[in-house]
Amino acid sequence: MVTLREVSVDELRHLVSERALTGETMLLNMGPQHPSTHGVLRLLLELDGEIVVNCIPDVGFLHTGVEKNMEAKTYQKAEVMTDRLDYLNPIGNNLVYCLAVEKLVGLDVPPRAQAIRVILAELTRIASHLLWLGTSSLDLAAMSTFLYTMREREMILDIFEMCSGQRMMTTYVRPGGLWRDVPVEFEAAVRRVLEVMPRRIDEYERLLTTNELFLDRTRGIGVITAEECVQWGISGPVARAAGLKYDLRKVRPYSGYEQYEFDVPTQSDGDVYSRYRVRVEEMRQSLRIIRQALDKLPYGPVRSNNRKFVPPPRSELGVSMEAVIHHFKLWTEGFMAPKESVYAAIESPRGELGVFLEGDGGPKPYRVHYVTPSFANLQIMPLLTRNHFIADVVGIIGSIDIVLGDCDR
Amino acid sequence: MGLEQKTAQMGVVTTTLEQMVNWARTRSMWPMLFGLACCAIEMMAAQASSYDLSRFGMELMRASPRQSDLMIVAGRVSRKMAPVLRLLYDQMPEPKWVIAMGDCASCGGIFNNYAIVQGVDEVVPVDVYVAGCPPRPEGLIHGILTLHDKVQKEKLTKWA
């Protein structure tokens, strides 16, 4: 049996209000093993009856030391670690890391690779939002949505598997392009998603959007204003639901997002319901982007021709001595990056996902730092939950869509 | 004619108590609703429509360790989480089993560093290891069936 240390209220006095010390309010521990904290989040709740007075998130239960591990690997090999950060957005994690590496060493990316990156990143966004929709409505006791959204998610995971051989941790996006070209079945599979998804999204909306029970649990719950979002550094659907029209795909386009037509859905109420509406609409916009990208998908190489950074194709190895040398150098030593620091950011399903990358002239990064939306968005938990019922806390956690792997790293 | 009527006409079925109890245990093994990281998403996928764990009588994930028989350690266990995990294991009633799902839970996986416990077997006894990063839902189901086989072979003398 594990010996547990008693924690007295006195030790928590820097976190809780005066009323907790006298026993007027109750302290309640929620998590780290709780079905609706979406992972291993621990919340210390201070309660006045059923009303939440204060909510103190305790993170770090999934601290993985990814950033430190990446410093011990070459630039190509460190990428494998990035998938496991935000495990609902693996392609996005790869993409932002590769954008940072490409910026650091000045590497070009062929247009076909960029378009495929966009398609896969948007598919990931849909898959992530589908899982969010399923689990967060499950928290609000809408069981059937989960079964439907997971069904559609499998379609998208099949596409990832088709491209990369892995359902979730793809490491498909590589510095200078992609691992390999997409298979011939790719287009038909994506078209099938494009055909099926709009109907299915309507189906979810029929289940939830006007459902009285769902409305009661979500309207006017966990309200945040646009000003507060700016003050707390909130990004992504949470900020957009409060009326802040900020999307990095529009503000600072990357991977050719400027070529595609799409809207940035916003709402004005800033409550749980608005966040739901924003995410559902985002799925539709993602489908729009995928359709455009697929329609004008250019032909050509998917990897940069710069042999100093990108390994040569397999076919060259048997005929070119130079290719063998490059291949050997890249996979034993890696490539050298200049002693500079760069910052690259993308719009992940949860908000602004950034990478700060510093090289030291050698083949390994000196420092990799992920700026993650889950960590920033989790700060507002005390603000959102204050004066709400304890039952609404689960709905609010669901609505800000945190991934603890992303938050704790 | 249904299976029930057919077997009823067979008359008496003889078996041993050992086999019957083990059979009952494998047919309604309730896992604990306990996800840690990436593997938890695949565990959810295994529960959901496409893979449907309820075929094995396991659709009921219990959020409370007091009501569960099987702990699926789905994901990497950090040093901060390890005592919590052990506490949850201690709170589960006997008989109980543990599946280490994925490379991180089995051996630390790609995270050989200061933060991650190098295999959850340092903390709790593991019955079945499922390889993969993350394992496919089929992989998890195979692990579960392997565990069922193992339970089926358990001896009466070993029951707690």
Automatic annotation (TrEMBL), chain B:
Co-factor remark: Binds 1 [4Fe-4S] cluster.
Reactions listed under catalytic activity: a quinone + NADH + 5 H(+)(in) = a quinol + NAD(+) + 4 H(+)(out)
SUPFAM superfamilies linked: HydA/Nqo6-like (SSF56770)
Locations listed in the record: Cell membrane
Membrane topology listed for this record: Peripheral membrane protein
Top enzyme category: translocase
EC nos: 7.1.1.-
Keywords: 4Fe-4S, Cell membrane, Iron, Iron-sulfur, Membrane, Metal-binding, NAD, Quinone, Translocase, Transport, Ubiquinone
Domain NADH:ubiquinone oxidoreductase-like 20kDa subunit: 38-146
Keyword check for Coiled coil: no
Named cofactor requirement(s): [4Fe-4S] cluster
InterPro entries registered for this protein in UniProt: NADH_UbQ_OxRdtase-like_20kDa, NADH_UQ_OxRdtase_20Kd_su
Primary role: NDH-1 shuttles electrons from NADH, via FMN and iron-sulfur (Fe-S) centers, to quinones in the respiratory chain. The immediate electron acceptor for the enzyme in this species is believed to be ubiquinone. Couples the redox reaction to proton translocation (for every two electrons transferred, four hydrogen ions are translocated across the cytoplasmic membrane), and thus conserves the redox energy in a proton gradient.
Homology family: Belongs to the complex I 20 kDa subunit family.
PANTHER family from the UniProt entry: NADH DEHYDROGENASE, NADH DEHYDROGENASE [UBIQUINONE] IRON-SULFUR PROTEIN 7, MITOCHONDRIAL
Record HAMAP family: NDH1_NuoB
SUBUNIT field: NDH-1 is composed of 14 different subunits. Subunits NuoB, C, D, E, F, and G constitute the peripheral sector of the complex.
Name of the featured protein: NADH-quinone oxidoreductase subunit B
Naturally occurring in which organism (per UniProt): Thermanaerothrix solaris
